[in-house]
Amino acid sequence: MLSNKSVAVGLVALFYSVTVSAADHTLAQNSKSFKLNGSQVEEYTIKAGDTIYFKNEDPFFHNIFSLSDLKTFDLGSYPAGESKSVVFETPGEAEIECAIHPEMYLLLTVE
Amino acid sequence: MKQNTFRRNAMTKMIATVLMGVTVVLSASVVSAAKAPSKEDVKKFLRPMEVPQGKNNISTPERVELGKNLFFDPRLSGSNFISCATCHNPSLGWSDAQPTAIGHGMGTLDRSTPTILNTAYQRFQFWDGRARSLEKQALGPIEAGGEMSQSLDLLIPELQAIPGYVTLFEAAYPGEGVSKKTIAKAISAFERTIVSSESAFDRWLKGVDGVMSDEAIKGFEIFKGKANCTACHDGFNFSDNGFHNIGLKDMEDMGRYAIKPIKVLKGAFKTPTLRDIDLTSPYMHNGAYKTLDEVVDHYDAGGFKNAGTLSPNMKKLNLSKKERKAIVAFLKSLTGDPVPFTVPVLPVQ
Ligand SMILES: [Cu+2]
Q1: How many secondary structure helices (H) and strands (E) does chain A include?
Q2: Which residue of chain A is at minimal alpha-carbon distance from B123?
Q3: Catalytic annotation, pick one of B147, B158, B176, B252
Q4: Are both B101 and B183 inside the same structural domain?
Q5: Is residue B202 part of a domain?
Q6: Any chain B CB within 8 A of the CB of A100?
Q7: What percent of chain B has pLDDT over 70?
Q8: d(CA B91, CA B279)
Q9: Of A70, B147, B257, B342, which has the fewest Cβ atoms less than 10 A away?
Q10: In this complex, which of A60, A65, A101 lies closest to B262 when CB atoms are compared?
Q11: How many domains does chain B fold into?
Q12: What are B's interface residues with A at a Cβ cutoff of 8 A?
């Protein structure tokens, strides 16, 4: 029989591992490209369960979408200053683009 | 006495001269302060040092020459009657002055003929951007039933049978022969030479005084500011290489949506260049407007509801008549100096 204590420890451990691995990332949409801390990124890697915030820093609307097998979504279009987020639960690859400016392209790897 | 008068006269003259000088200097500085482009404008809108080149297709004079011949040769069409230049006519701003194009068998196409000016700078070709490069674009119109209606498998032996062409192909792409690839590459190399020439706006950016009217300069300010045209028409080529639905009336063509089925792309088309825009009426993918005044009125109204998704960057602008006129004056300052163009003498049978 498991003691109450060990169940509690197990739960805490489980909770701990989940919160540690699920990180938040912010990618800026700036000068019609994806940027991380000011420099352009075309490839980016995260862990399963992580969330990416896409933040519009340009003075016009951007969109975010993906039609990949991994995940299909369309965040619509949104103005300067706003950000929208997506959680990536499963490992794989996703091509993420702005439909309005198709030069904005990011190959995301979820590990 | 005489001396005094003389002196007084001289004095007045001198004072007058000095005063005139001051006013001239004053007015000059006031005018140039209002007229000079900002450093940011210069950086943003000045011509890039080089014309972008094709992948694995660096331009050479031989490649351009071959491409020019192909571009003007009606034998590239099924009827032997239509060349690329039939629709992309150098005398009409490399377009055709038709609301929508007229092709094989005088059939009318659904979209208007865009200019090929500055296509070298574009990241996507066609109104819906379905071709990623000029090389990928070039064979499309030859085979398209509505345009030139010519099977490429038949065209290649036709060209091989013309000795002049065999020589031109050999000089341009030694050892590669007449093929789909070399045809597409040569045409693209030629198209990359069709770039806009210097306009009043360019000279003004370079600091030449008196080339842009006050009205046109005012128009540029409104273009960047109140009217927010630069949300889409930005940079040297006045395009963001993006796709937007600007709310044209009675529009059925869904444009980019057919290529990428994303909601914001319903009725979206590529932002076209505004270089030489005064030469390429009628305007828009469906030829909806005849004049630049009509175009500016369209934007002033914020576009209209259509079957697609209106761009959120479109809104009522509340421009005065004077402001609308100023924008048109600015658009006209983007016309480059006329460049004499010699059409090729084509190789005969
Ligand atoms: Cu965008």
Answers
A1: 1, 10
A2: A103
A3: B147
A4: yes
A5: yes
A6: yes
A7: 90
A8: 9
A9: B342
A10: A65
A11: 2
A12: 123-124, 129, 228, 231-232, 240-244, 256, 260, 262-265, 268, 311-313
pTM of this structure: 0.89
pLDDT tens for B330-344 read 999 999 999 999 999
Do B182 and B228 lie in one domain? The reply is no
Chain A residue numbers with beta carbons less than 8 Å from the beta carbon of B231 are 59-60
The reply to whether residue A79 touches residue B264, judged by beta carbons under 8 angstroms, is no
> Do A101 and B240 count as a contact with CB atoms less than 8 A apart?
yes
The answer to whether residue A59 neighbours chain B at the CB level (below 8 Å) is yes
Q: Which of B159, B191, B223 is the last residue of a domain?
A: B191
User: Which domain does B218 fall in, by range?
Assistant: 198-332
Which chain A residues are Cβ-neighbours of B268 within 8 angstroms? 100
pLDDT in tens, B70-104: 999 999 999 999 999 999 999 999 999 999 999 99
Residue B94 structure tokens: 């490399």
- For the question of residue B323 being annotated catalytic, the response is no
Whose structure tokens read 């421009």? B319
Residues of B in contact with A59 (CB under 8 A): 231
Give per-residue pLDDT as tens, B201-210.
999 999 999 9
Quick: pLDDT tens for B294-307.
999 999 999 999 99
Q: Are residues B133 and B234 in the same domain?
A: no
The CATH code of the domain that includes B238 is 1.10.760.10
A103 touching B (Cβ < 8 Å): yes
Domain boundaries, chain A: 22-110
| Within a domain: B289 | yes
Which residues from B are below 8 Å from A77, CB to CB? 264, 312
B179 and B294 share a domain?
no
Percentage of chain B with pLDDT > 90? 87
Domain assignment of residue B281, yes or no: yes
Dist. CA B42–CA B46, nearest whole Å:
5
Q: Which two tokens stand for residue B301?
A: 């109204």
Evaluate whether B118 touches B275 at the Cβ level (below 8 Å).
yes
CA distance linking residue B275 with residue B185, whole number of Å: 25
Q: What is the pLDDT of residue B34?
A: 52
Amino acid at B236: F
Judge whether B263 lies within some domain: yes
CA separation (Å) from B124 to A13, B46, B213, B239?
A: 52, 21, 34, 11
- pLDDT over 90 (residue B141): yes
Residues of chain A with pLDDT under 70: 1-21
Topology at the third CATH level for domain A22-110: Immunoglobulin-like (2.60.40)
